[in-house]
Amino acid sequence: MHIQIRRVGRRNCAAEAARIRHFICDTQFNVVSMDTEYPGTVYSSADPKDRHPAAQYALMKSNVDELALIQVGLTLSDVSGNLATLDNTNQVVVWEFAISDFDPHVHKYVPESIDMLKSRGLNLEFHKQEGIHSHEFAQMMVYTGLVQVPSSDTRVQPDKEVRWITFHGAYDFGYLIKALTRRNLPEKLQNFTELVRSYFGRHVYDIKIISRYCYDEATGKILCGGLDEIASKLGTCRILGDRHQAGSDSLVTF
Q1: Regarding the domain with residue range 2-253, which homologous superfamily does it belong to in the CATH classification?
Q2: pTM of the entire structure?
Q3: Among its keywords, does the record have Ubl conjugation (predicted)?
Q4: Which of 20, 58, 111, 239 could be bridged to 144 by S-S, CB 3.0 to 4.6 A?
Q5: What is the DSSP string of the chain?
């Protein structure tokens, strides 16, 4: 099996959107592993020990409202774990969308985070010149069937419902909700979770949370750690790309 991470910008977005729409709407490849990249977090909690959901959401909202999305990675599979392949080939495509919103001269960012992303191959000039705006990406998500439109009366058949898989995905969904609604995140956590449910449906899974209920067979301890560490403990590894590349991270999340 050959896997290609396809970088998507304004020149090929329409063609790749049509391909994703085919996988989502015409086949059973409706399990979406997703990752985003963004310029760090500029706000931190006054009390790092405060793990109350409302406090954590308020912190996330402050950062997402202030910062700009940089990259989105998508990997599609079916419920049996088969990756989506191009017609009549054995080639798997993972999509990495270059988002053009971020401007270091305008937006806040954490310098160390941007330096790290650059060390992983981020080309800000490409994003600026060839990327797509987050609003365009949101429109693409609606067109492809990746997300539902809350105001629509159309009901998705259960076997066609998209299933979302993330790793530590609160910020990921925060940036996507911001793009879909074209406004800052709602003040209350409950309203945010309602938006996530409305757009992304009933099946949203976070591997970071699920891992808290799983045990490492080698040590008998609860699974913990970052994406690569947990993947290694589960007997898998990163086979393409690097950490903090949205396409590669979405593939590892799968």
Answers
A1: Ribonuclease H-like superfamily/Ribonuclease H (3.30.420.10)
A2: 0.91
A3: no
A4: 20
A5: -EEEEEEE-TTTHHHHHHHHHIIIIISS--EEEEEEE-S--S---SSTT---HHHHHHHHHHHHHHS---EEEEEEE-TTSPBPB-TTS-EEEEEEEEB----TTTS---HHHHHHHHHTT--HHHHHHH-B-HHHHHHHHHHHTSS--TT------GGG--EEEESS-HHHHHHHHHHHHTSPPPSSHHHHHHHHHHHH-S-EEEHHHHGGG-B-TTT-SBP-S-HHHHHHHTT----SS-TT-HHHHHHHH-
Indicate the domain borders of the chain.
2-253
Contacts of 52 (CB under 8 A, 6+ apart): none
Task: Give pLDDT tens digits for 228-253.
Answer: 777 777 777 777 777 779 989 898 88
Q: Beta strand 71-77 with 163-166: parallel, antiparallel or unpaired?
A: unpaired
User: d(Cα 162, Cα 147) in Å, to the nearest integer?
Assistant: 8
Q: What is the pLDDT of residues 112-138, one digit of tens each?
A: 999 999 999 999 999 999 999 999 999
Tokens for 111?
């310098």
